[in-house]
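Structure representation.

___
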Amino acid sequence: MSQRWLRREGEKWVREGIISENQWKQILSRKGEERSHWLPVLSGILVGLGILSFVASNWDGIPPLMRLWILVISMGGFYIAGEIRTRKGFLHTGGRERNFRSSSRLCTSHA
């Protein structure tokens, strides 16, 4: 939950009478300041480019079977990492669709 989202949604909740103004201020004070996420993203991109450059520069010297295994293992690793992040609830790796499926299942079970 980002601070920006919390402010926007909190204003709606106060207008709709879901929470009071005082409760909204308490929620905002507990959330804390929003951190910048650009440094981990930049470092991940640079590390990934370094790995790609290393493999690309040595691609001709790698035997064909090893090339295949590099591709299969890296692809499988990314699939597994994405699944783990999705199960932990990260919205940027498919969690939004998963939550939508879960909520739609809950909504239909009450009918």
